[in-house]
Amino acid sequence: MSEQTRFDILVVGGGMVGSALALGLSRQGWNVGLVEGSDRKTLLEKSAVASGVEDFDPRVSAISLASQRLLEQLGVWSEISAGRHCPYQAMTVWDGDGTGRIRFEAAELRAPALGTIIENRRIVRALFAALTASDVELVDGVKVTAWWHDQHERGIRLEDGRTLAAKLVVAADGAHSRLRQWVGLPTREWDYDQQAMVCTVRTTQSHRFTAWQRFSPTGPLAFLPLSTESGDEHFCSIVWSQDTAEAGRLMALDDDAFRAELESAIERELGTVEVVSRRYAFPLRQRHAKDYIASGFALVGDAAHTIHPLAGQGANLGYGDVRALLEELGRARKAGIDPDNHLVLARYQRRRKGENLAMMAAMEGFKQLFGRDELSVRWLRNTGMRWLNQLGPVKNRIAAEAMGLD
Ligand SMILES: Cc1cc2nc3c(=O)[nH]c(=O)nc-3n(C[C@H](O)[C@H](O)[C@H](O)COP(=O)(O)OP(=O)(O)OC[C@H]3O[C@@H](n4cnc5c(N)ncnc54)[C@H](O)[C@@H]3O)c2cc1C
Asked: Which of 86, 179, 302, 352 maximizes ligand 1 atoms within 8 Å of its Cβ, making it the mutation to test the pocket?
């Protein structure tokens, strides 16, 4: 690599979102660089095809049909779905403090599934395998340490002293995006004062290819179905969001006491529960950049927005950003327009901001609604859930929105 390498587009961050974007842009014919702080070999080794049940990635995503379509267009879905992945046919949501219950069914929507639970590392692995065989210049195992720009160009400096230049730099460097801070794009953020605990469990009853979610005033608990190589239907990945003090208490429990609390929190819906992995806890914070773009610069994925995992939409919103940016830049390429054209970037921002904000507002509404235990609010939400459950068309419209279907 020369002392200063120039690209049309430089993507910083090779997580689920940035690596998909870099691959799509290169397929459009742009000269693309992708910088990822961790070392690619380690990343691929970490994500090497794992088959043991003790070896599930604690981070899984409920990938919507819209995100699946994007991964299909990028040519990586066949690789992802060749390994373990779990399409789920139904979702049951209920109020732990009442009698309200809603069940969404793929069959009612004439869809093959509501979505697919996939280990994050499987997605990253498939994307990196495709990137290695693509024209994308991969710069990995080295972190970005600074941003620079002059009148005509902008770029980044790497910790090993190299400088990279591009017409457009896209930050996909996650929730704590350094690039967003260096470029000076402010965020609106607030702490949910909750932590999400995640781990893998084995249950005595089959998960029945259903995603289970129980709400309580201190936060939601999700059991997301997993598939093993041998087709065992008794493993789930749990995401248990609880107020920070309660999460601290639960994380401090020994395995058996934690298991007992978990079993009672899910109301033994799937029989008895055994925890088969380490437990992890992630602090939850809502964050939204006031602007997604600046001159020759754009944000995608968690760098632009983070939301509560209660509806499993974070990565799906990131893939929505990727789809929109690919469409706008694809059109620009065909018309011979530079990728840093302000109108092109402004269209991307306009398309994504409204949708992302609407989803964030919905998540906040859910959290508030289930976080209150006054009798009147409890009555309202339980009656509302029962009523909604009987209203097929409205219920199906909500499900279609969550699946990313138009
Ligand atoms: C508990 C929990 C459960 C979730 N469940 C779901 C779900 O079911 N469905 C769903 O859609 N979403 C879910 N999400 C959200 C989802 O995980 C994120 O939205 C998604 O991983 C964001 O991807 P990203 O590529 O934008 O960011 P990241 O995955 O954070 O990737 C950022 C990348 O940038 C790299 N990087 C950072 N800084 C630098 C630097 N200075 N130089 C070079 N490289 C750098 C990092 O190494 C990393 O690879 C969940 C989140 C949590 C916390």
From this structure: 302
Pairing of strands 90-95, 101-105: antiparallel
Specify the ligand 1 atom closest to the Cα of 43. Answer: 49
Q: pLDDT tens, 183-217?
A: 999 999 988 889 999 999 999 999 999 999 998 88
Euclidean distance between CA atoms 60 and 116, whole angstroms: 10
What the chain holds in terms of domains, given with CATH numbers, is: 4-402 (3.50.50.60)
Nearest to 218 by CA among 371, 36, 329: 371
Is there an atom of ligand 1 within 6 Å of 35 CB?
yes
Q: Does residue 363 have its Cβ closer than 6 Å to ligand 1?
A: no
Sheet holding 115-119, edge to edge: 60-63, 115-119, 86-88
Q: Is any atom of ligand 1 closer than 6 Å to the C-beta of 14?
A: yes
Evaluate whether 104 touches 210 at the Cβ level (below 8 Å).
no
Query: What pLDDT was estimated at residue 19?
Result: 97
Residue 213's Cβ-side half-sphere holds a number of Cα atoms within 13 Å equal to 20
State the maximum Cα–Cα separation within the chain, in Å, rounded to a whole number.
68
Angle at 64 between CA 173 and CA 197, to 5 degrees: 60
Confidence of residue 394 (pLDDT cuts 50, 70, 90): low
Nearest CA to ligand 1 atom 3: 309
Q: State pLDDT tens for residues 58-102.
A: 889 999 999 999 999 999 999 999 988 999 999 998 887 767 788
